[in-house]
Input
Amino acid sequence: MDFSNIDLMWAPPVLAFLSVIGIVAGMIRWLVKHYLDEMKAEFKPNGGSSLKDQVNRLEKAHVDLDKKVDRIMELLIAGRFKRPDTDVIKTIDHQDEEPKDSK
Output
């Protein structure tokens, strides 16, 4: 077979185009990899500034707030409260009277 009549004028522009595409693909891969590495670091606790630490703080605050709301609801529904230093229960309506022991 005689290859002396083959026109190879198209080869250099095609190779240049494929090289540019390869370089752009490599740059995008590098950028995405480093961007995802930074994002992954946010999901690990690091002592206060990561997203994971902030979520943990919010969860703890939410649990504490839930306890307070439950206590308030208990007071409002029951109409009485128990003093923490004694086991004596006073009704809210009659706080000025002597407490009734309800053990």
